[in-house]
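go over this chain:
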Amino acid sequence: MTYADTTHDVRDPELPGRLLTTERDALIPLLRARPDDDFALATLACPGWTVRDVLAHCAAALTRVVEGRFEKGVFSPEANDRDIAARADRTNAQVLDELERGMTEAGAAIARAGGALDAVALGEWVHAGDVRDVLGAPGAYGGQGLGSALTLLARVTRQKSCQPLHADLDDLDDPLRLGDASGELTPARYIGDAATLVRLYAGRPVPDGVTYELAGAKAEDLNIFG
């Protein structure tokens, strides 16, 4: 896989939507084939949430994006819990129906937002990885959407003026530059695989036995979701 350096490029407004539909095409059929018991499994990345809770949160968030509903406190932990509770009487299939619609339709709204909602698409893709991780399904924090996700991750970390980081990734041909692009700060250095880098930036646990090198920064300093 190759990665195009986007340090100085122009935002691709269609990229978040492509990431969502790519993940939709892989994740939704996988979930529709799983037994209901799998939806009750506890997640590692989101303590207190089950697989179903994560999916309900994602469905609600994308529906809000599609409908343009961003009231005060939206996406706060309290609002997220209310969104999950509001879907408590729905079947798992109905939650997946809403999620599929959101992953299909949210891209256009994100594109129109001029970059303000790009991180939502990245966050939903990360949550898909959370679910895959619990289910032991391949592609957690990777898969067909990885290239688009890394491009989006680089852009989001620049928007947030995160500490600059130079990543030499085992599974990509070219180095990845993330964070502040002013050149005024010394970049940290990461050596390892791309999925682990995503885990670090998303604040997700790194599995036992996975090795990587990180110099000039602490793992907890990279978390962009808080």
Summary: The first helix runs from residue 15 to 32. The chain is about 50% helix and 5% strand. Helices lie at 15-32, 36-39, 51-67, 77-85, 92-112, 118-135, 146-159, 194-202.
